[in-house]
Amino acid sequence: MDLVTRIMTFLGDVAFEVLDYFSPLWALVILSALTGVAMLLIWRHTSNQDAIADVRRQISAHLLASRLFKDDLSVTFRAQRQIIWQALRLMGHSIRPMLIMTVPFVLIMVQIGLRYEFRPMPVGQVTRVKVTMKDPGKTRGHGDQLKLPDGMVAAANDPCRAIPIGTIDWRLTPRVGGTHMLKFGNGGDVIELPVIAGDGFVRLSKFRGGSFFQRLLYSAEPSIPDSSAFASIEVFYPQRSTAIAGFDVHWLITLLVLSIVFALVFKPFFKVHI
């Protein structure tokens, strides 16, 4: 998984370096258009286009028959049965391309989400950081060791330990913007995690380690070594919202809607049957 993460993170960094010339909203629009075109191309080359076109013709023919012979109940019912059957055939032809699209679509969404899901720590405001240990017994004396860089301070009396579940919490306040490297543990078991403070639009990793889906969806960091006592480190970055016409819309909804719109717009140019 680390190899896939490194490759996709590199490609994401290159893409967003180009998109850095645009505002985050316009960058999302461009990404939606590219995603829509990519979905069309994948659909075209992984689906049976001739069969889908034939199903579409059959549905149109039976719809026309139900209109022309609406006074003949037997013809109308037969046409409706055929429409339902052809719709089921169309769904069957859609399964393979949709399954194939899932993997690249998720990987693209992850790279976009690393920039759009969260915003950096606000300077001067408290942000929570949580460590989870594999062995709750190491919560004291090892898991609660944190070396802070200049420009980052912890709240008095921290950390807060929940020994039965093996978690340690800090309340950290960045005094200056930029990238701050946190170092957890001591001796030969030290895990680092960069955290970012300020107002920039940058790639943010909410997790290092954790479950498969936490690493897949919210992290561009390498996995924690198996020999480490640490299970995961989580930074509670504030949520980012994308303002559209005065409304805060989640970036994923914006991307999905716009990518579908662009796919429908470009469908005739690529001669794709959906």
If you had to describe this structure to a student in words, what would you say it looks like?
With 274 residues, the protein is an alpha+beta fold. 48% of the residues lie in helices and 20% in strands. The protein folds into 2 domains: 2-117 and 247-270, no CATH class; 127-235, no CATH class. The protein has helices at 2-19, 24-46, 49-68, 73-116, 212-218, 251-270; strands at 127-133, 146-147, 152-154, 160-162, 167-174, 178-186, 189-197, 207-209, 230-235, 242-244, 247-249. A hairpin with a 2-residue loop joins strand 6 and strand 7. Helix 3 crosses helix 4 (73-116). The longest helix has 44 residues, at 73-116. It is elongated, with a radius of gyration of 25 Å. The mean pLDDT is 88.
Indicate the topology.
Elements: H1 2-19, H2 24-46, H3 49-68, H4 73-116, E1 127-133, E2 146-147, E3 152-154, E4 160-162, E5 167-174, E6 178-186, E7 189-197, E8 207-209, H5 212-218, E9 230-235, E10 242-244, E11 247-249, H6 251-270
Antiparallel strand pairs: 1-5, 1-9, 2-6, 3-5, 4-5, 6-7, 8-9, 10-11
Structure classification = alpha+beta
Query: Biggest β-sheet: count, sense, barrel?
Result: 6 strands, antiparallel
- How many structural domains can be distinguished in the coordinates? 2
**Share of helix, binned:** 40-55%
Number of strands: 11
Overall geometry:
elongated
Strand content: 15-25%
SSE string: HHHHEEEEEEEEHEEEH
What Rg do the Cα atoms give?
A: 25 Å
Mean pLDDT: 88
Parts with pLDDT < 50 across at least 5 consecutive residues: none
The number of helical runs is: 6
Determine the N-to-C terminus distance.
Answer: 33 Å
